[in-house]
Fold these 2 entries.
Entry 1:
Amino acid sequence: MELKNNNEFEKNQPNSSEMTENTKAEEQAADTINFSHTEENSHAVDATVTVETKDFVNHGEQEEPTEFDPTTEATLPLEMDQTRTTSQVDQKYKKKRNVRGFASTLAAGVIGSVLTLAILPHTDYIKNHFPKVENQGAISSQQGTSVKAVVAQPTAASSNSIADTVEKVSKAIVGIVNYQQQENNLYGNPNSSQSVESGSGSGVIFQKNNGTAYIVTNNHVVEGASKLEVSLFDGEKATAEVVGTDALTDLAVLKIDAKYVTATADFGNSSTLRPGDQVYAIGNPLGLDLSRTVTQGIVSATNRSIAITTSAGNWDTNVIQTDAAINPGNSGGALINPQGQVIGINSLKISESGVEGLGFAIPSNDLIPIVNQLIKSGKIDRPYLGVGLADLDQVPQMYWQNMPNNTTKGVMLTNIEPNSAAAKAGLQVKDIIVSMNGAEISSSSDLRKYLYTKVSKGAEIKFGVYRDGKQMTIIVKLSE
Protein backbone atom coordinates (compact mmCIF):
# COMPACT_ATOMS: atom_id res chain seq x y z
CA MET A 1 0.00 0.00 0.00
CA GLU A 2 1.26 3.48 -0.82
CA LEU A 3 -0.05 6.61 0.79
CA LYS A 4 0.89 9.63 -1.26
CA ASN A 5 1.36 13.08 0.22
CA ASN A 6 0.31 15.56 -2.42
CA ASN A 7 1.86 18.63 -0.77
CA GLU A 8 4.66 20.08 -2.81
CA PHE A 9 7.57 21.97 -1.30
CA GLU A 10 7.66 25.45 -2.76
CA LYS A 11 10.32 27.85 -1.66
CA ASN A 12 11.88 30.98 -3.13
CA GLN A 13 14.92 29.64 -4.84
CA PRO A 14 18.16 31.63 -5.13
CA ASN A 15 19.59 32.56 -8.48
CA SER A 16 22.80 31.08 -9.80
CA SER A 17 25.11 33.68 -8.26
CA GLU A 18 23.51 33.27 -4.86
CA MET A 19 23.82 29.48 -5.10
CA THR A 20 27.54 29.97 -5.53
CA GLU A 21 27.73 32.11 -2.43
CA ASN A 22 25.79 29.58 -0.31
CA THR A 23 27.64 26.38 -1.08
CA LYS A 24 29.12 26.22 2.38
CA ALA A 25 25.73 26.86 3.94
CA GLU A 26 24.27 23.84 2.12
CA GLU A 27 27.10 21.66 3.35
CA GLN A 28 26.45 22.79 6.88
CA ALA A 29 22.70 22.10 6.48
CA ALA A 30 23.43 18.59 5.27
CA ASP A 31 25.27 17.92 8.52
CA THR A 32 22.04 18.62 10.41
CA ILE A 33 19.92 16.06 8.51
CA ASN A 34 20.28 13.23 10.97
CA PHE A 35 19.50 15.44 13.93
CA SER A 36 16.48 17.05 12.26
CA HIS A 37 15.01 13.65 11.33
CA THR A 38 15.46 12.34 14.84
CA GLU A 39 13.77 15.31 16.44
CA GLU A 40 11.07 16.21 13.96
CA ASN A 41 10.10 13.01 12.12
CA SER A 42 10.10 10.21 14.70
CA HIS A 43 6.32 9.91 14.19
CA ALA A 44 6.51 9.20 10.45
CA VAL A 45 6.32 5.38 10.68
CA ASP A 46 2.57 5.34 9.93
CA ALA A 47 2.78 7.23 6.67
CA THR A 48 4.64 6.97 3.43
CA VAL A 49 5.58 10.18 1.67
CA THR A 50 6.34 10.35 -2.00
CA VAL A 51 8.21 13.46 -3.03
CA GLU A 52 7.89 14.63 -6.56
CA THR A 53 11.10 16.33 -7.72
CA LYS A 54 10.83 19.57 -9.58
CA ASP A 55 13.22 21.95 -11.23
CA PHE A 56 13.45 24.62 -8.65
CA VAL A 57 14.91 27.13 -11.17
CA ASN A 58 12.24 28.62 -13.33
CA HIS A 59 13.92 28.79 -16.66
CA GLY A 60 11.16 30.91 -18.14
CA GLU A 61 11.74 33.67 -15.59
CA GLN A 62 15.50 33.37 -15.04
CA GLU A 63 17.29 36.68 -15.25
CA GLU A 64 20.55 36.99 -17.05
CA PRO A 65 23.44 37.63 -14.62
CA THR A 66 25.15 41.01 -14.85
CA GLU A 67 28.87 41.56 -14.73
CA PHE A 68 30.32 42.81 -11.55
CA ASP A 69 32.17 46.14 -11.99
CA PRO A 70 34.53 46.83 -9.10
CA THR A 71 35.02 50.47 -10.02
CA THR A 72 31.31 51.06 -9.80
CA GLU A 73 31.14 49.52 -6.38
CA ALA A 74 34.06 51.60 -5.16
CA THR A 75 32.40 54.90 -6.11
CA LEU A 76 29.34 54.24 -3.97
CA PRO A 77 28.85 56.41 -0.91
CA LEU A 78 29.67 54.93 2.45
CA GLU A 79 26.13 54.94 3.71
CA MET A 80 24.87 53.15 0.64
CA ASP A 81 27.69 50.66 0.94
CA GLN A 82 26.78 49.93 4.53
CA THR A 83 23.16 49.54 3.64
CA ARG A 84 23.96 47.18 0.79
CA THR A 85 26.29 45.13 3.00
CA THR A 86 23.66 44.81 5.72
CA SER A 87 21.05 43.82 3.17
CA GLN A 88 23.33 41.18 1.72
CA VAL A 89 24.00 39.74 5.17
CA ASP A 90 20.27 39.55 5.90
CA GLN A 91 19.56 37.95 2.55
CA LYS A 92 22.37 35.45 3.07
CA TYR A 93 20.98 34.56 6.48
CA LYS A 94 17.47 34.08 5.11
CA LYS A 95 18.77 32.05 2.21
CA LYS A 96 20.82 29.86 4.53
CA ARG A 97 17.75 29.29 6.67
CA ASN A 98 15.57 28.48 3.64
CA VAL A 99 18.13 26.06 2.25
CA ARG A 100 18.59 24.44 5.65
CA GLY A 101 14.81 24.08 6.18
CA PHE A 102 14.23 22.71 2.70
CA ALA A 103 17.14 20.27 2.93
CA SER A 104 15.98 19.11 6.37
CA THR A 105 12.41 18.60 5.20
CA LEU A 106 13.47 16.82 2.03
CA ALA A 107 15.89 14.54 3.89
CA ALA A 108 13.32 13.84 6.60
CA GLY A 109 10.73 12.87 4.01
CA VAL A 110 13.10 10.56 2.18
CA ILE A 111 14.35 8.87 5.34
CA GLY A 112 10.81 8.63 6.73
CA SER A 113 9.66 6.93 3.53
CA VAL A 114 12.50 4.43 3.70
CA LEU A 115 11.76 3.63 7.34
CA THR A 116 8.05 3.30 6.62
CA LEU A 117 8.58 0.87 3.76
CA ALA A 118 10.99 -1.16 5.89
CA ILE A 119 8.93 -1.27 9.10
CA LEU A 120 5.27 -1.10 7.98
CA PRO A 121 5.04 -4.65 6.51
CA HIS A 122 6.09 -6.05 9.91
CA THR A 123 3.35 -4.25 11.83
CA ASP A 124 -0.44 -4.81 12.17
CA TYR A 125 -1.26 -1.42 10.68
CA ILE A 126 -2.46 -2.75 7.34
CA LYS A 127 -4.26 -5.67 8.94
CA ASN A 128 -6.12 -3.45 11.42
CA HIS A 129 -6.99 -0.56 9.13
CA PHE A 130 -7.31 -2.23 5.76
CA PRO A 131 -8.54 -5.84 6.36
CA LYS A 132 -10.04 -6.22 2.91
CA VAL A 133 -6.70 -5.87 1.22
CA GLU A 134 -5.44 -9.15 2.65
CA ASN A 135 -8.53 -11.00 1.46
CA GLN A 136 -8.15 -10.12 -2.17
CA GLY A 137 -6.67 -12.85 -4.30
CA ALA A 138 -5.04 -10.42 -6.71
CA ILE A 139 -4.94 -6.67 -7.22
CA SER A 140 -4.56 -5.07 -10.60
CA SER A 141 -1.03 -4.01 -11.38
CA GLN A 142 -2.49 -0.78 -12.72
CA GLN A 143 -3.08 0.26 -9.12
CA GLY A 144 0.64 0.25 -8.52
CA THR A 145 0.60 -2.75 -6.16
CA SER A 146 2.03 -6.20 -6.61
CA VAL A 147 -0.23 -9.07 -7.74
CA LYS A 148 -0.96 -11.63 -5.05
CA ALA A 149 -1.12 -15.24 -6.18
CA VAL A 150 -4.48 -16.97 -5.98
CA VAL A 151 -4.36 -20.21 -3.96
CA ALA A 152 -6.93 -22.93 -3.26
CA GLN A 153 -8.32 -22.90 0.25
CA PRO A 154 -8.63 -26.19 2.17
CA THR A 155 -12.16 -27.56 2.45
CA ALA A 156 -13.28 -27.46 6.05
CA ALA A 157 -15.13 -30.53 7.25
CA SER A 158 -18.52 -29.69 8.73
CA SER A 159 -21.34 -31.79 10.12
CA ASN A 160 -23.73 -29.51 8.22
CA SER A 161 -22.10 -29.97 4.80
CA ILE A 162 -24.20 -31.27 1.91
CA ALA A 163 -21.81 -34.20 1.48
CA ASP A 164 -22.40 -35.27 5.09
CA THR A 165 -26.15 -34.85 4.70
CA VAL A 166 -26.28 -36.86 1.49
CA GLU A 167 -24.09 -39.59 2.98
CA LYS A 168 -26.48 -39.92 5.90
CA VAL A 169 -29.68 -39.95 3.85
CA SER A 170 -28.25 -42.30 1.20
CA LYS A 171 -28.18 -45.09 3.78
CA ALA A 172 -31.98 -44.97 3.78
CA ILE A 173 -32.30 -45.13 -0.03
CA VAL A 174 -32.86 -48.57 -1.55
CA GLY A 175 -33.06 -50.09 -5.00
CA ILE A 176 -36.17 -52.10 -5.89
CA VAL A 177 -36.25 -54.77 -8.59
CA ASN A 178 -39.64 -55.87 -9.94
CA TYR A 179 -39.78 -59.54 -10.97
CA GLN A 180 -42.81 -60.78 -12.91
CA GLN A 181 -43.87 -64.23 -14.06
CA GLN A 182 -43.25 -64.90 -17.71
CA GLU A 183 -44.57 -67.90 -19.60
CA ASN A 184 -41.87 -70.18 -20.92
CA ASN A 185 -42.91 -72.42 -23.80
CA LEU A 186 -39.46 -73.90 -24.19
CA TYR A 187 -39.52 -77.58 -25.17
CA GLY A 188 -43.26 -77.41 -25.79
CA ASN A 189 -44.24 -77.09 -22.13
CA PRO A 190 -46.96 -74.40 -22.01
CA ASN A 191 -47.34 -74.60 -18.23
CA SER A 192 -43.77 -73.65 -17.37
CA SER A 193 -43.04 -70.08 -16.28
CA GLN A 194 -40.21 -68.21 -14.67
CA SER A 195 -39.74 -65.00 -12.76
CA VAL A 196 -37.87 -62.40 -14.80
CA GLU A 197 -36.79 -58.86 -14.03
CA SER A 198 -39.25 -56.43 -15.62
CA GLY A 199 -38.09 -53.13 -14.16
CA SER A 200 -36.42 -51.35 -11.30
CA GLY A 201 -36.83 -48.26 -9.23
CA SER A 202 -35.98 -46.65 -5.91
CA GLY A 203 -37.47 -46.41 -2.44
CA VAL A 204 -37.02 -44.64 0.89
CA ILE A 205 -36.88 -46.36 4.29
CA PHE A 206 -38.84 -44.09 6.60
CA GLN A 207 -39.64 -46.16 9.68
CA LYS A 208 -38.51 -49.11 11.84
CA ASN A 209 -41.12 -50.60 14.12
CA ASN A 210 -41.25 -53.92 16.00
CA GLY A 211 -38.68 -55.62 13.81
CA THR A 212 -40.18 -54.31 10.56
CA ALA A 213 -38.83 -51.56 8.32
CA TYR A 214 -41.21 -49.67 6.01
CA ILE A 215 -40.36 -48.37 2.55
CA VAL A 216 -42.30 -45.84 0.46
CA THR A 217 -42.06 -45.94 -3.33
CA ASN A 218 -44.18 -45.42 -6.44
CA ASN A 219 -46.99 -47.81 -7.29
CA HIS A 220 -45.77 -48.15 -10.88
CA VAL A 221 -42.42 -49.46 -9.54
CA VAL A 222 -44.08 -52.47 -7.85
CA GLU A 223 -47.25 -52.93 -9.90
CA GLY A 224 -47.75 -56.43 -11.28
CA ALA A 225 -44.77 -57.90 -9.41
CA SER A 226 -44.64 -61.54 -8.38
CA LYS A 227 -41.49 -60.83 -6.39
CA LEU A 228 -39.82 -57.67 -5.10
CA GLU A 229 -36.14 -57.57 -4.23
CA VAL A 230 -34.69 -54.70 -2.24
CA SER A 231 -31.02 -53.74 -2.49
CA LEU A 232 -29.68 -51.85 0.53
CA PHE A 233 -26.86 -49.38 1.05
CA ASP A 234 -24.33 -51.95 2.19
CA GLY A 235 -25.06 -54.35 -0.68
CA GLU A 236 -27.40 -56.63 1.28
CA LYS A 237 -30.49 -57.86 -0.57
CA ALA A 238 -33.86 -58.67 0.96
CA THR A 239 -37.24 -59.80 -0.30
CA ALA A 240 -39.97 -57.21 0.29
CA GLU A 241 -43.68 -57.63 0.93
CA VAL A 242 -46.36 -55.21 -0.26
CA VAL A 243 -48.15 -53.49 2.62
CA GLY A 244 -50.50 -51.53 0.39
CA THR A 245 -50.73 -49.67 -2.91
CA ASP A 246 -52.74 -46.82 -4.36
CA ALA A 247 -52.63 -46.61 -8.13
CA LEU A 248 -54.44 -43.29 -8.31
CA THR A 249 -51.82 -41.38 -6.33
CA ASP A 250 -49.02 -43.70 -7.59
CA LEU A 251 -47.83 -44.58 -4.08
CA ALA A 252 -46.97 -47.89 -2.42
CA VAL A 253 -45.61 -49.06 0.93
CA LEU A 254 -43.36 -52.13 1.31
CA LYS A 255 -41.86 -53.82 4.32
CA ILE A 256 -38.68 -55.80 4.99
CA ASP A 257 -36.99 -57.29 8.03
CA ALA A 258 -35.53 -54.48 10.16
CA LYS A 259 -32.28 -56.42 10.68
CA TYR A 260 -31.10 -55.21 7.27
CA VAL A 261 -31.70 -51.54 8.08
CA THR A 262 -29.18 -49.21 9.69
CA ALA A 263 -30.77 -45.81 8.91
CA THR A 264 -34.13 -44.20 8.21
CA ALA A 265 -35.09 -40.88 6.62
CA ASP A 266 -37.38 -38.22 8.06
CA PHE A 267 -40.10 -36.37 6.16
CA GLY A 268 -40.05 -32.57 6.00
CA ASN A 269 -42.80 -30.02 5.54
CA SER A 270 -43.27 -29.52 1.80
CA SER A 271 -45.63 -26.58 2.29
CA THR A 272 -42.67 -24.36 3.21
CA LEU A 273 -40.97 -24.87 -0.17
CA ARG A 274 -40.56 -21.90 -2.48
CA PRO A 275 -39.30 -21.65 -6.06
CA GLY A 276 -35.53 -21.28 -5.88
CA ASP A 277 -35.00 -23.51 -2.83
CA GLN A 278 -32.13 -25.97 -3.18
CA VAL A 279 -33.10 -29.64 -3.46
CA TYR A 280 -31.25 -32.91 -4.08
CA ALA A 281 -32.57 -36.06 -5.77
CA ILE A 282 -31.19 -39.44 -4.66
CA GLY A 283 -32.03 -42.66 -6.45
CA ASN A 284 -30.93 -45.40 -8.83
CA PRO A 285 -31.11 -44.10 -12.39
CA LEU A 286 -30.96 -46.80 -15.07
CA GLY A 287 -30.77 -49.56 -12.46
CA LEU A 288 -28.63 -50.65 -9.55
CA ASP A 289 -25.34 -50.12 -11.36
CA LEU A 290 -25.75 -46.38 -10.69
CA SER A 291 -27.30 -46.79 -7.25
CA ARG A 292 -27.71 -43.80 -4.95
CA THR A 293 -26.84 -41.23 -7.57
CA VAL A 294 -27.19 -37.65 -6.29
CA THR A 295 -28.32 -34.77 -8.50
CA GLN A 296 -28.72 -31.15 -7.50
CA GLY A 297 -31.29 -28.59 -8.52
CA ILE A 298 -33.84 -26.10 -7.30
CA VAL A 299 -37.57 -26.06 -6.77
CA SER A 300 -38.81 -24.74 -10.10
CA ALA A 301 -42.44 -24.48 -8.98
CA THR A 302 -44.82 -25.77 -6.32
CA ASN A 303 -48.42 -26.99 -6.55
CA ARG A 304 -48.19 -28.01 -10.18
CA SER A 305 -51.09 -30.13 -11.45
CA ILE A 306 -49.99 -32.87 -13.86
CA ALA A 307 -52.50 -35.15 -15.61
CA ILE A 308 -51.34 -38.77 -15.50
CA THR A 309 -52.85 -42.02 -16.64
CA THR A 310 -52.86 -44.80 -14.07
CA SER A 311 -54.31 -48.30 -13.87
CA ALA A 312 -57.11 -46.75 -11.78
CA GLY A 313 -57.91 -44.07 -14.33
CA ASN A 314 -56.81 -40.56 -15.15
CA TRP A 315 -55.78 -38.34 -12.28
CA ASP A 316 -54.49 -34.81 -11.84
CA THR A 317 -51.55 -35.17 -9.47
CA ASN A 318 -50.29 -32.29 -7.35
CA VAL A 319 -46.48 -32.22 -7.68
CA ILE A 320 -43.30 -30.27 -6.98
CA GLN A 321 -41.49 -29.26 -10.15
CA THR A 322 -37.68 -29.40 -10.05
CA ASP A 323 -34.77 -29.17 -12.46
CA ALA A 324 -32.76 -31.77 -10.55
CA ALA A 325 -32.01 -34.59 -12.99
CA ILE A 326 -34.57 -37.40 -12.65
CA ASN A 327 -34.18 -40.43 -14.91
CA PRO A 328 -35.78 -43.86 -15.29
CA GLY A 329 -34.97 -45.73 -12.10
CA ASN A 330 -35.22 -42.59 -9.94
CA SER A 331 -38.94 -43.25 -9.46
CA GLY A 332 -39.70 -43.75 -5.77
CA GLY A 333 -36.46 -42.08 -4.66
CA ALA A 334 -36.11 -39.13 -2.34
CA LEU A 335 -36.15 -35.41 -3.06
CA ILE A 336 -34.49 -33.85 -0.01
CA ASN A 337 -33.81 -30.35 1.28
CA PRO A 338 -30.37 -29.19 2.51
CA GLN A 339 -31.29 -30.36 6.02
CA GLY A 340 -31.64 -33.94 4.78
CA GLN A 341 -35.42 -34.14 5.13
CA VAL A 342 -37.49 -35.91 2.48
CA ILE A 343 -39.83 -33.29 1.04
CA GLY A 344 -40.97 -35.33 -1.99
CA ILE A 345 -40.94 -38.71 -3.73
CA ASN A 346 -39.59 -38.48 -7.28
CA SER A 347 -42.23 -39.85 -9.61
CA LEU A 348 -42.05 -38.69 -13.21
CA LYS A 349 -40.40 -36.44 -15.75
CA ILE A 350 -41.22 -34.99 -19.14
CA SER A 351 -38.83 -36.57 -21.59
CA GLU A 352 -39.99 -35.19 -24.93
CA SER A 353 -37.38 -34.21 -27.48
CA GLY A 354 -35.89 -30.81 -26.68
CA VAL A 355 -37.19 -30.79 -23.10
CA GLU A 356 -34.74 -30.59 -20.21
CA GLY A 357 -35.00 -30.12 -16.48
CA LEU A 358 -38.68 -30.97 -16.01
CA GLY A 359 -38.93 -33.46 -13.17
CA PHE A 360 -41.76 -33.90 -10.69
CA ALA A 361 -42.11 -35.24 -7.17
CA ILE A 362 -45.12 -35.99 -4.96
CA PRO A 363 -45.03 -33.53 -2.01
CA SER A 364 -44.42 -35.04 1.42
CA ASN A 365 -47.51 -33.37 2.88
CA ASP A 366 -49.66 -35.13 0.24
CA LEU A 367 -48.09 -38.56 0.62
CA ILE A 368 -47.94 -38.82 4.44
CA PRO A 369 -51.73 -39.35 4.88
CA ILE A 370 -51.68 -41.94 2.08
CA VAL A 371 -48.74 -43.78 3.66
CA ASN A 372 -50.39 -43.85 7.09
CA GLN A 373 -53.63 -45.20 5.67
CA LEU A 374 -51.81 -47.86 3.64
CA ILE A 375 -49.98 -49.05 6.76
CA LYS A 376 -53.24 -49.09 8.72
CA SER A 377 -55.57 -50.80 6.24
CA GLY A 378 -53.53 -51.74 3.17
CA LYS A 379 -55.65 -49.58 0.87
CA ILE A 380 -57.11 -46.10 0.51
CA ASP A 381 -60.73 -46.04 1.57
CA ARG A 382 -62.45 -43.63 -0.82
CA PRO A 383 -66.09 -42.97 -1.63
CA TYR A 384 -67.34 -45.40 -4.24
CA LEU A 385 -69.76 -44.42 -6.99
CA GLY A 386 -69.76 -47.57 -9.16
CA VAL A 387 -69.58 -46.11 -12.68
CA GLY A 388 -67.38 -46.25 -15.78
CA LEU A 389 -66.38 -42.87 -17.23
CA ALA A 390 -65.33 -41.36 -20.55
CA ASP A 391 -64.54 -37.73 -21.30
CA LEU A 392 -67.14 -36.18 -23.62
CA ASP A 393 -64.53 -34.89 -26.06
CA GLN A 394 -63.32 -38.49 -26.53
CA VAL A 395 -66.77 -39.84 -27.39
CA PRO A 396 -68.05 -39.65 -31.00
CA GLN A 397 -70.57 -36.81 -31.31
CA MET A 398 -73.26 -39.14 -32.66
CA TYR A 399 -73.69 -40.40 -29.06
CA TRP A 400 -74.41 -36.96 -27.64
CA GLN A 401 -75.85 -35.07 -30.63
CA ASN A 402 -78.94 -34.07 -28.64
CA MET A 403 -76.84 -31.96 -26.28
CA PRO A 404 -77.26 -28.17 -26.39
CA ASN A 405 -74.85 -26.52 -28.84
CA ASN A 406 -73.01 -24.65 -26.11
CA THR A 407 -72.26 -27.83 -24.11
CA THR A 408 -69.05 -29.52 -25.19
CA LYS A 409 -67.54 -30.63 -21.88
CA GLY A 410 -68.66 -33.27 -19.44
CA VAL A 411 -68.34 -36.94 -18.52
CA MET A 412 -70.35 -39.75 -20.11
CA LEU A 413 -71.23 -42.84 -18.06
CA THR A 414 -70.13 -45.92 -20.00
CA ASN A 415 -71.34 -48.55 -17.52
CA ILE A 416 -73.20 -48.80 -14.20
CA GLU A 417 -72.31 -51.53 -11.69
CA PRO A 418 -75.29 -53.37 -10.23
CA ASN A 419 -76.24 -52.49 -6.63
CA SER A 420 -73.83 -49.55 -6.65
CA ALA A 421 -74.76 -46.11 -5.33
CA ALA A 422 -75.12 -44.85 -8.91
CA ALA A 423 -77.50 -47.70 -9.87
CA LYS A 424 -79.64 -47.17 -6.77
CA ALA A 425 -79.95 -43.46 -7.53
CA GLY A 426 -81.15 -44.07 -11.10
CA LEU A 427 -78.12 -42.99 -13.14
CA GLN A 428 -78.02 -44.62 -16.59
CA VAL A 429 -75.46 -45.45 -19.28
CA LYS A 430 -74.97 -42.50 -21.70
CA ASP A 431 -75.96 -39.98 -19.04
CA ILE A 432 -73.65 -36.99 -19.26
CA ILE A 433 -72.56 -35.45 -15.93
CA VAL A 434 -71.72 -31.75 -16.10
CA SER A 435 -71.72 -30.76 -12.40
CA MET A 436 -71.46 -32.08 -8.82
CA ASN A 437 -73.01 -29.99 -6.03
CA GLY A 438 -72.85 -27.03 -8.38
CA ALA A 439 -69.15 -27.45 -9.23
CA GLU A 440 -68.48 -27.74 -12.97
CA ILE A 441 -67.23 -31.15 -14.13
CA SER A 442 -65.35 -31.09 -17.44
CA SER A 443 -63.54 -34.45 -17.39
CA SER A 444 -63.32 -37.75 -15.59
CA SER A 445 -60.33 -36.50 -13.59
CA ASP A 446 -62.47 -33.58 -12.36
CA LEU A 447 -65.14 -36.05 -11.20
CA ARG A 448 -62.63 -38.28 -9.37
CA LYS A 449 -60.88 -35.39 -7.72
CA TYR A 450 -64.13 -33.92 -6.42
CA LEU A 451 -65.37 -37.33 -5.27
CA TYR A 452 -62.14 -38.21 -3.45
CA THR A 453 -61.30 -34.84 -1.93
CA LYS A 454 -64.56 -32.95 -1.41
CA VAL A 455 -67.01 -35.58 -0.13
CA SER A 456 -66.91 -38.50 2.27
CA LYS A 457 -68.56 -41.88 2.53
CA GLY A 458 -72.30 -41.70 3.28
CA ALA A 459 -72.63 -38.17 1.83
CA GLU A 460 -75.22 -37.05 -0.72
CA ILE A 461 -74.19 -35.54 -4.06
CA LYS A 462 -76.37 -33.53 -6.45
CA PHE A 463 -75.38 -34.45 -10.01
CA GLY A 464 -76.22 -32.13 -12.91
CA VAL A 465 -77.00 -34.55 -15.76
CA TYR A 466 -78.02 -34.37 -19.42
CA ARG A 467 -80.15 -37.30 -20.63
CA ASP A 468 -81.37 -37.32 -24.24
CA GLY A 469 -80.64 -33.60 -24.44
CA LYS A 470 -82.65 -32.74 -21.32
CA GLN A 471 -81.05 -31.40 -18.18
CA MET A 472 -81.96 -32.90 -14.81
CA THR A 473 -80.67 -33.23 -11.24
CA ILE A 474 -80.08 -36.64 -9.70
CA ILE A 475 -79.20 -37.09 -6.01
CA VAL A 476 -76.85 -39.97 -5.19
CA LYS A 477 -76.28 -41.16 -1.63
CA LEU A 478 -72.88 -42.74 -1.26
CA SER A 479 -72.57 -46.00 0.66
CA GLU A 480 -71.02 -46.02 4.12
Entry 2:
Amino acid sequence: MNACSGRLADRVATVTGAGRRIGPALAQRLVADGARVGPCDGDVSLTGRAG
Protein backbone atom coordinates (compact mmCIF):
# COMPACT_ATOMS: atom_id res chain seq x y z
CA MET A 1 0.00 0.00 0.00
CA ASN A 2 1.21 3.49 -0.89
CA ALA A 3 2.14 5.68 2.09
CA CYS A 4 -0.26 8.36 0.79
CA SER A 5 -3.20 6.04 0.14
CA GLY A 6 -6.32 7.09 1.96
CA ARG A 7 -5.14 10.50 3.09
CA LEU A 8 -7.91 12.12 1.03
CA ALA A 9 -10.64 9.68 2.04
CA ASP A 10 -14.06 11.33 2.40
CA ARG A 11 -12.91 14.22 0.19
CA VAL A 12 -14.25 15.25 -3.22
CA ALA A 13 -12.17 16.91 -5.93
CA THR A 14 -13.27 18.50 -9.20
CA VAL A 15 -10.54 18.37 -11.81
CA THR A 16 -11.06 20.85 -14.63
CA GLY A 17 -9.26 19.94 -17.83
CA ALA A 18 -9.16 16.30 -16.74
CA GLY A 19 -9.10 15.02 -20.31
CA ARG A 20 -5.79 16.43 -21.46
CA ARG A 21 -2.26 17.41 -20.55
CA ILE A 22 -1.57 16.94 -16.84
CA GLY A 23 -5.29 16.62 -15.93
CA PRO A 24 -5.57 12.82 -16.22
CA ALA A 25 -2.48 12.26 -14.08
CA LEU A 26 -3.78 14.66 -11.44
CA ALA A 27 -7.17 12.94 -11.35
CA GLN A 28 -5.52 9.50 -11.07
CA ARG A 29 -3.30 10.67 -8.22
CA LEU A 30 -6.26 12.10 -6.31
CA VAL A 31 -8.12 8.79 -6.70
CA ALA A 32 -5.02 6.88 -5.55
CA ASP A 33 -4.99 9.07 -2.43
CA GLY A 34 -8.62 8.16 -1.71
CA ALA A 35 -10.54 11.15 -3.09
CA ARG A 36 -13.72 10.92 -5.11
CA VAL A 37 -13.02 12.75 -8.37
CA GLY A 38 -15.41 14.58 -10.66
CA PRO A 39 -13.54 15.16 -13.92
CA CYS A 40 -14.67 18.17 -15.95
CA ASP A 41 -13.61 18.88 -19.50
CA GLY A 42 -15.97 20.50 -21.98
CA ASP A 43 -14.10 19.29 -25.07
CA VAL A 44 -13.67 15.62 -24.13
CA SER A 45 -16.33 12.89 -24.08
CA LEU A 46 -16.77 10.23 -21.39
CA THR A 47 -14.57 7.93 -23.47
CA GLY A 48 -11.73 10.43 -23.36
CA ARG A 49 -12.00 11.44 -27.00
CA ALA A 50 -11.97 15.06 -28.07
CA GLY A 51 -15.15 16.51 -29.55
